Amino acid sequence: MTPDLHLWIVPVLPLIGAAINGLLGRRFSRQAVAGVALGFCGAAFAMALGVAIQFSSLSLPYTETLAHWIRAGSFQADFAFYLDQLSLVMLLVVTGVGFLIHIYSVGYMWEEGGFYRFFSYLNLFMFFMLTLVLAGNYLLMFIGWEGVGLASYLLIGFWFTKDSAASAGKKAFIVNRIGDFGFLIALFLLIKHFDSLDYGQIFATVQHLSPETGGSGLLTTIGLLLLVGACGKSAQIPLYVWLPDAMEGPTPVSALIHAATMVTAGVYMVARSHVIFERAPMALTVVAIIGTLTALFAATIGVCQTDIKKVLAYSTISQLGYMFLGCGVGAFSAGIFHLMTHAFFKGLLFLAAGSVIHALGGEQDMRNMGGLRHKIPWTFWTMTAATFAIAGIPPFAGFFSKDEILWQAYQASWVYWLIGVFTAFLTSFYMFRLWFLTFFGEYRGAAAAHEDHSAASHAHGHGGIHESPKVMLVPLAILAALSIIGGWVGVPKALGGDNRFEAFLSPVFQTRANAPQEQSAEGAAAETERGTELAFTGISVAAGLAGLYLAWLLYLRRRQLPQKIAHVFGGFYQAVLHKYYVDEFYAILLVKPLIDGSTKILWHGIDQGVIDATVDNSADAARGVSDSIRHMQSGNIRSYASWVAAGAGAIIIYMIWIGAR
Amino acid sequence: MVPLSYYLILSGILFTCGVTGFLIKRNIITIFMSIELMLNGVNLSFVAFAAQWHTLSGQIFVFFVMVVAAAEAAVGLAIIIAVFRTSETLNVDHINLLKL
What is the pTM of this model? Predict the structure, then answer.
């Protein structure tokens, strides 16, 4: 007996909040705006918890159809919702982390103009994200997919009077559009070949297809196109360029959208479509390769960034690469596990970074920070938890999820594993670099300098360095606790756990092609495998600790060394510092031809040359003709009479001519 | 008997004189007389045809035209006098109050 969950209420709650704040919020007090936003977001979280409590009594996957939407011939798409273990994890992460970030935002945005607008957008984002997660078919997922893109655009450009923020919003939107194009084509192909967009129907059909061995085929095509969409949303190579710029938005937005939830939508989508990907090994390999490259590529850029939020942005891209790597080697539950722990610690890192920025009155450059650990102890300790978590130091959350991915990657290919471990080392290095630069050493900023800086972009400049209010610290503390213990649900067997997280998700991913293999691996082989896995765990922990040591050496112990190293590497350092000139490369290769083409051909050629010219010339011709014949209308009676006489004469002549014929 | 064409040619000449006068004269009274001339040019062709075809309708039409012309002359002359009183001129080119 499955109770009716009324799942549709979960996304609709934040939508109501968004509507109330968006339409009426201008007249509300700040307290009322915050109350509405938190109330509806909290209600969604409470409802998600309620779903989780009833979860064990459900027959899964639980589906619910709210209303019919499109019916065309045999094709139909409904407002249908779909709940299984995967959606539940996403649901809890999105509502839980989202709710905490809402609370934090109240403190962070209190001094800002457009308070109601901010919370309206934030709630709108929650609506679309929950739609994406709970959708029962690809079309509804696409609605959420586009909607979170819209909310992301609105929130990146929240300070729209700032030119850089406005263009960063546009960049995010346009780059995402490229990905969405791929996603859409994939949906069209699904409709064409399966006549459905419903998860249940498609997966049931696809399950009976045999895996495609070659590099081409329908499922491979669909998988690759879905991957294009995922690359756009989850900021993977080559479409990652929007995410660093998206840091122009308020920091809670970076935490919520560009770290914890929206950017993981691509991972969720790949995991959701695992049935398709498993039967398209080629597409899955591409997923793994893209994930690995992105992880490494973004991590190297992160090493050289000096803006605290930019470091975190590249770190996010890199961690998303890990998730793709996990999915790409078929370890979907490991990818989702990392998604969850990443939501905790990266959300926390951004919020803590926001707290630092808040404390310093808008300063974001780490070179102007330092020695803050005594001045903002709460921020320091929570950030420490998150830093250790992302660096993969046990027993923090990130250790378990990253280790799981690396282990699974090793089983696919040692190349993935090697790059993954090196990236883990880089991750640890740049995160501890951030940590040391921000909190250790002596303070390097000039207090007066940030007051000017803050006046331009933030309204945070009040007083000296100060700890953030409680409303911001409580979410930090909760997320810090989650960053520490969040990984314990997935302790691998090798470490004496039973990996409950993977067991929990296994009904969703049980169709994995390699499932029987794992069964046979039990027994005698399991013991040696355990030893190997422990050894690999040791290596990845060592990589994390090496990163810590190196960061300590370079940024606390011998400060002049980084300069020298940068000098030695010269050209390469410059390339990394300028993010490998990817933005410039795209500008030359794609943006400039587009702009030139639009300017010269579309604007000057077609718009001005054809469309405008047609209108202008016909207007000119009309005026010219009128000019010559308007003299008839002289107002002089005798000239009118002459015309009448001339007309009469013409008629007479005509009549005579007719008669004479 | 005088052939019909003679009457019609005379009628055409009278009408053309009227039109020409109407077009080239600037004095309102002259223009007025030109209009009368045109009307009478037409009247002549009416009676000529009536005589030719031995029907009365042409003759009766002429009476109607004369009556209308008389009424028109009365109203027109009254207007001309009123115009002369206000603008002290009978030159049509100077009477252009309605013109922009």
Answer: 0.78
